[in-house]
Amino acid sequence: MYPSVIEEYLRPGSVSEALAAVARYDEGEAMFLAGGQSAMQAMKSRMLRPQCVVDLQDITELRGITRDGGALRIGAMTRYVDIAGDAALDGAFGALRDAASHVGDRQVRNRGTIGGSVCWNYVASCMPAVVLGLGGTLELAAADGSTRRLEADDFFLGPLETARREDEILLAVSWPAPPARRGSAYKKWGLVRDALPVVGVCVQVTLGGDGNCLQARVALSGLAGGCQRAQAGEDLLVGCSGDASAIDRALDAIAGSVETHSDMSADADYRRQLIRSIGSEVAATAFARARGD
Amino acid sequence: MSTVENSADWLGARLARKEDLRLITGQGRYLADMVLPGMLHAVFVRSEYAHARITGIDTSEAAAMPGVVAIFTGVDFKDTVKPMPQPVVKPNLPARYPTFWPLAIEKVKFHGEPVALVIARDKYVAEDAAECVYVDYEELPVVRDPEQALGPDSPLVHEEDGSNEIFAMTLTGGETPEEQAANAAAVEEIFQRADVVVAERFRCHRTGITPMEPRGVLCDWNDSDGLTAWITTQRPHIDRLALSDLLEIPAEQVRVVAPRDQGGGFGVKAPFYRENLAIAYAARALRRPVRWVETRYESLMNVGQERDQINDLEIAASKDGKLLAVRNRGVADNGVGTTGVYWGFVMPFLGAVELPNAYTWERGDVSLRCATTNKAALTPSRAFGHFPTRFALERAIDMVAHKLDMEPAELRRKNLVPSLPYTSVTGEYYDSGDFVKVWDNLMAQADLPAFRAEQAKAREEGRYLGIGFACGVELSGVASELLVPMENQPGYGAATVRLDPRGKVYVFGGDAPGGQGHETTTAQVVASLFGIRPSDVVVTTGDTGTTPFGSGSIGARAGSYFVSAVAKACAEIKDKITRILAHDLQIEASVQHFEFTNGEIVYLGDAAKRKPFTEVVERIIMFPINLPEDEVGGLEHTAFFEAAKPMICFNADCCIVEVDVESGNFSIKRWVTSEDVGTVINPNIVDGQMHGAIVQGLSNAMFEEFVYDEQGQQMSADFEHYKLATAADVPDIEITYAPTPCPHTPLGTRGIGEGRPSSVPGALSNAVCDALRPWGIEITDLPLRPGSVWQKLRETRG
Amino acid sequence: MKTITVTVNGTSYEESVPERMLLVDFLRDRLALTGTHVGCTYEGVCGACTVHLDGEAVKSCLMLAVQADGHAVTTVEGLAGEGGPGPLQRAFSNSHGLQCGFCTPGILMNMSDFLARHPDPSDEEIRSGLVGNLCRCTGYVHIVRAVRDAAREMREGASEVQA
Question: Does domain A182-291 sit in CATH 3.30.390.50?
Fold first, then answer.
């Protein structure tokens, strides 16, 4: 119910200050606090017992959505509500808004951040699958001032595990300017409205001038193995025009290829069906956005 | 907003509630808001295992932590406190009543059972300390399936009982085994000759009505005055007797107060819980106030688990659509059962009693077995015991209708009890009402022919709509005739009505509401009877120190018993007022010759003879001279209302759904109801009761489920896993009324709202099955989820 | 322990608090503002603890008090103005949008923020906005009506002011 004793709470004003604070502690003793919508659950259930909490709320350079031409950079501390409210995040980046506008509830969206979500990488969460599905780049900074950039495929390692070292901060998630005729979408299914995803599907497609798919990325959330690509379906989407039967074939392949599990939310077979039904809708929307419908 | 000119109109007025101002401004006083000087905080250490021997408890590290005041374990209670099964919290039903104390002794029997109690000066520290109480367990085999529990090879949950059958009963055919056997044979004979027989196994999962406010107990001990206990309870007067008996404190030294504001009860706060006793014990031992506030985790682990029945149900019918006989073998998963008053099995007992519902049957053969398992005991939840049996019956009736190629609505109407009073085949008495009138009103709302046309057109377009019906006879309060055997306590309503010299009225009632608006409905009744305003009336409930005995806020007692006692008390007082007023006016008149209206008492024989209410009241209380012979001053009366026979209310539901056959998703397009609630005091409050009950029923039927794994570990102790319906998950609800005033209550009111969720799963499932008629899908299990609909479609479509 | 300065319902408080103290406990136990309620454990799903942080609805059980240092918090006790309960609160009473009242403060705080951003919401939008607040008693029907009525009154009041 209540967190275990916290010895130190810090609120640094800069990234370097934040990193220096964490560096003073041994592994596992200090943690960064973003929006807290997942971290506080973990602290209150005492799954996490940090001695030191480094609150990132005052570091303004970590917030905000910036554009440079068509390139997009979202600061790690950018809240769901701000992503959901950015109407320019459509077309190629539509999945970001789809996901952000349905995480939890509006109170959660006023606090929770994209950085907190991707670094926590809980299996039943949306942003990791969307960042993976859109092929984002994650910018990390270390205490010695160095930075590195990781592709999403290399960042998400498994449930609650990412390539971020404990002494690194996620600065932002970014994308280069997308090609024309790219569209993405995301949808999840849960037992009640906006519940944690039992299953979620993110689809990004890029079309050629002839309207056929040149490239596709598909990522899934809610599976026991964590957010993951679905290459089986991606290959089948390439070359099609987004017609219903091609989409269905692709989703059948995905549903057949992934490992699903049974739990109190749904059984393994129904999870496959959900991937099909949600995936078809999401893929159709991605194609429509790519076409500019 | 209501502007009422004629005070007789307070009955039926949509008055904004008196409770609201403090609640909308955050000035309510719930248990967790209460603080006493020097108060200590309590945290329970609870069992990690479903079934295990306790081989050691090490409290040394926890006891040494700064701020920790005391730690209690089971052995502290065993020789100093009586075991919990005392008569006041045991029903008068033949059953096994295993011994237990507030904390586990030697064994734990369910995941979450309290094992130790940590008392500290700060609630965060108490949790730190509780983590450092180390309990050694030796695991024992877990009993988790109720049918296996009743088998010969099952491990025993309570070894002293020699059996896992905590309760069993045959509810039809009479009292003796011979009579019951003869009845069973007669029923079998009906089944043999019947044109149509439906036989199915229906399963209802473990779910219930957990309230938004978890439980809490605050106890204060004083060597001179004894024990004062504030408890989140629906039954303060019963809790008081239990604490007195168990702790051997003289009854006059025990006072229990249910806080004026409680965040819902729904039956979950009706039992007498171990924690009540443990906290009282600790407060007395430490001579310091001790407060325990339950976490949601504890709540979901320990209480609010109900339903969980298997019903093998059969119906025999004639080819012209007459229901002939019903036969049911029920098995309830009782959990450990060790929870005072209800013991888990009282709910399934009532569920079996209520099985016949609103239909006529020539005969019935209904029996029930309740099995002890290593799970939390069943605790009451709104639609007490009959959520599963009503689901089974209403589904089976639809199955009968399909075999007869008859509209299910038509089959129901044909078999509704045509006139009341009526006694069901299980001996339940239905006192009054007009079921057919309620049903016909529902059918007028539903417009079945129009729906069938719409459904046919939709099917051509590949869309699947369905309509489903169900109804429910529900208890309107519980008469002593039923409550004494069932729960060893009385059913009467009691109210003290006291006037003050300024003409204000104070009402005292021993029940303990949690949101039903008793302050307002009571005030409306008093205001209409005395011709004053609801703002002139103050209602006090739940304090055993000031209120007459009340069995509690259970079984819809307010509109039936309590309000009737209030009306009786007011009538006595009005008699006295008018006797004295007539004397003062020097006229021969009695109460029926006067009208109490708009703050005045007016003589109907001569409207010039009228006096302000406040003036007459003040005269009688403050200036009691020149009174009629044998009359004395003062205006106060305590009245008791009992119904000779149990009373009922009745409702019928219609649900329209659309089902997506690819995914199994279904959505409710419309929910409309027809209600007989008798005379309505405040329509807003009654509407609200119906909305809430129906949404609870939907949430139970579709989303909520308590899950225990193979090791008996409870997996659903937080709201991420035990999912309640949000506003976005449920439809708008249309409530309509076709009432018949109750002839047995002074105002014609009926108690409402308790059993109301029970018809919901039947109506919903019937609608989904109706949508899927092309495939002949029959739903027999709850919860009803898209995954299960999809699975059934897949099996049928291949 | 840490010294924090938080403005709550317009009053500035300087308090020394344990780092791990939840914001909801700071409000309830330290400042005796018990109108904000706790209805779940660690999961932060029920929404009964909803308050405003700098004018936006947040769950105070999912925040540490120290995170509110330097910020402004509004609780249900701070909703009413000089003239008593405001239009949203009155609408809840008039529409019977509360029964036990335990979830009500959280809903009032969430909906006051919601209506500030969505002054003319549909019933569907109101229901979506309420996902973060569980209610057991009302079945939500009268709550939706109350929010709708409050929205209308606030729009009409606003247009009166403009006129």
Answer: yes
